[in-house]
What we know:
alpha/beta; 7 helices
Amino acid sequence: MILSEKIAADLLQIKAVFLRPKDPFTWASGIKSPIYCDNRLTLSDVAVREDIENGLVELIRTYYPEAEILMGTSTAGIAHAAITATKMNLPMGYVRSGAKDHGRQNQIEGKLLPGQKVVVVEDLISTAGSCLEVVEVLRQAEAVVLGIVSIFTYGMKKGIDRLAVAKVENHSLSNLDVLAEVAVKEGYISDKEKNELIQFRNNL
């Protein structure tokens, strides 16, 4: 089984991905969605967590071998950045969603030097808004952002377009197209429901 299929099967098995074509979830944006992904659950399953962190290491070594530091997105990317950095013997930090209103008022936590080559670690990419905010903060700090690695992406056109405009690469362990295929093979959904999932994504 290739890595993207393995990660998709892992997410389905631990119910980190919920598929409800007939009873859609409401996202924070108000979008009615037949899929909901909660990658925080991956931290609680030792085997799945190991698959993910090993996969992130493989992505970074393949696409960003010159990486000098990993930066997690707040909050779901922080733990994955820390574990992956430990496996790679790299420093890490994270970027807050906003600057603190006390102390040193940091938005970037951890030591980051100007010119340092950074890979952003994200758990989930939909419209790419939150991870691009992190990229912008890092660029303002004069870091060289090599790109993003993430656990899962929906592959939404808006997210793909935003990344392209910002000139940022993302490499995900798995994606909606692969997950939908695996979900059919393993009996989670029907072919008809798979097509509804893909159509939902394509219409956003």
